[in-house]
């Protein structure tokens, strides 16, 4: 089999980490006997500066026939962040019904978690973030600009279909793991959407008596994640809550340089899109020191989704081996190696593994 993958390196360190992820995947493909055909698209803030848009008008149609999309990161100083987000990422997520944003977090060897020494060495959880509706909505507006009564309104949209499918996905996933789901809510302060979310959570929890379920307010859940992360397995949250929790989870398990994510269309009707949790990191862009592990792990999730699970496991195993050895580490991991050196070490570990 040969899989057709659309590669969108994007901006800043997105370009550097994408190069390493592609090389690692090519090595895995060779070793496991399948093909990867990459088609690169220069959709980025650079393109926006030149052409006035992040991607061409037919961008979505262009991506549709691909088996998957691997994205570096977009965003660069001078281009407002809402332009890069709403001009590329959000349209792709919505057009292809990538309603699950899956963010596995694991404490990897050789990394020092802020929780190190607090018994969190076996930390492993997954954040299931709703990725198509919720708080990230275009409904609303600004009013009475400049006047004393100036205000802004932002509506959230929670549909029954949207909430049911993400919560059900979380329970199904829990059945393949430790059989525990925790839902992020805030129904004490947000009185329309969050009680609706809670109600649906309770309905679906009743369908899964073999899975332990609990609900926590987002503030208490954030505290729990730092104090007792070992109690968490699958965490499900709305678009905003899931976004915040997944950066927090990444931070406590070794940093943004290690955290992958998948924007998944579970039905496989449209291509899914995989990316690191981190952004384009303009503060270190162009210096060749970005940690490529997050993007390489995102690429491994892509292999899983394509059905090449053995290859995905091999990539994760190679990352583990190289971090365990501790000889080739980027500066964020306390080393002095470059992005390219760490990427090559992981590719070599696949070959010899
Ligand atoms: P960021 O994730 O780019 O950087 C946050 C901090 O983490 C920086 O100090 C950075 O140097 C460090 N960091 C991130 N990834 C790293 C890696 N692989 N290796 C070593 N250090 C790493 O987040 P920030 O600064 O808030 O956003 C920068 C730009 O990225 C913005 O334009 C933002 O909109 C965009 N962004 C794009 C995302 C995407 O494409 N999905 C996601 C998040 C942000
Ligand atoms: Mg985020």
UniProtKB/TrEMBL annotation:
PROSITE patterns the UniProt entry points to: IDH_IMDH
Transmembrane spans: none
Lineage of source species: Bacteria, Bacillati, Actinomycetota, Actinomycetes, Pseudonocardiales
Record protein name field: D-malate dehydrogenase (decarboxylating)
Assigned keywords, A-Z: Manganese, Metal-binding, NAD, Oxidoreductase
Superkingdom of origin: Bacteria
Xref: InterPro entries: ICDH/IPMDH, IsoCit/isopropylmalate_DH_CS, IsoPropMal-DH-like_dom, TTC_DH
Pfam families referenced in this protein's UniProt entry, alphabetically: Iso_dh (PF00180)
E.C. code: 1.1.1.83
Catalyzed reactions: (R)-malate + NAD(+) = pyruvate + CO2 + NADH
């Amino acid at each position: 089999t040969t899989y057709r993958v659309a590669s969108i390196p994007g901006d800043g360190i997105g370009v550097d980490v994408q190069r390493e992820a592609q090389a690692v995947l090519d090595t895995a493909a060779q070793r496991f006997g399948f093909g990867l055909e990459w088609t690169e698209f220069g959709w980025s803030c650079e393109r926006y500066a030149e052409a006035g848009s992040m991607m061409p008008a037919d961008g979505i149609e262009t991506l549709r026939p691909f088996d998957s999309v691997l994205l570096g990161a977009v965003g660069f100083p001078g281009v407002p962040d809402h332009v890069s987000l709403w001009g590329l990422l959000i349209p792709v997520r919505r057009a292809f019904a990538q309603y699950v944003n899956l963010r596995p977090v694991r404490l990897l060897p050789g990394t020092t978690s802020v929780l190190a020494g607090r018994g969190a060495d076996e930390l492993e959880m997954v954040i299931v973030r709703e990725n198509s509706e919720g708080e990230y909505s275009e409904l609303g507006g600004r009013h009475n600009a400049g006047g004393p009564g100036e205000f802004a309104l932002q509506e959230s949209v929670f549909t029954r279909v949207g909430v049911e499918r993400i919560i059900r996905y979380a329970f199904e996933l829990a059945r393949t793991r430790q059989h525990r789901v925790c839902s992020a809510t805030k129904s004490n302060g947000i009185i329309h959407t969050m009680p609706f979310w809670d109600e649906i959570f309770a309905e679906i929890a009743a369908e899964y008596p073999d899975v332990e379920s609990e609900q926590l307010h987002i503030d208490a859940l954030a505290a729990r994640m730092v104090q007792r992360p070992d109690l968490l397995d699958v965490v499900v949250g709305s678009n905003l809550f899931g976004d915040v929790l997944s950066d927090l989870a990444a931070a406590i398990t070794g940093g943004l340089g290690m955290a992958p994510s998948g924007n998944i269309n579970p039905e496989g009707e449209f291509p899914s899109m995989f990316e690191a949790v981190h952004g384009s990191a303009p503060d270190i862009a162009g210096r060749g020191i970005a940690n490529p592990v997050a993007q390489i792990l995102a690429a491994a999730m892509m292999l899983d989704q394509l059905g090449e699970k053995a290859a995905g496991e091999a990539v994760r195993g190679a990352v583990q081996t190289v971090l365990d050895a501790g000889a080739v580490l980027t500066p964020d991991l306390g080393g002095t190696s470059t992005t390219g050196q760490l990427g090559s070490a992981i590719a070599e570990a696949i070959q010899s593994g």
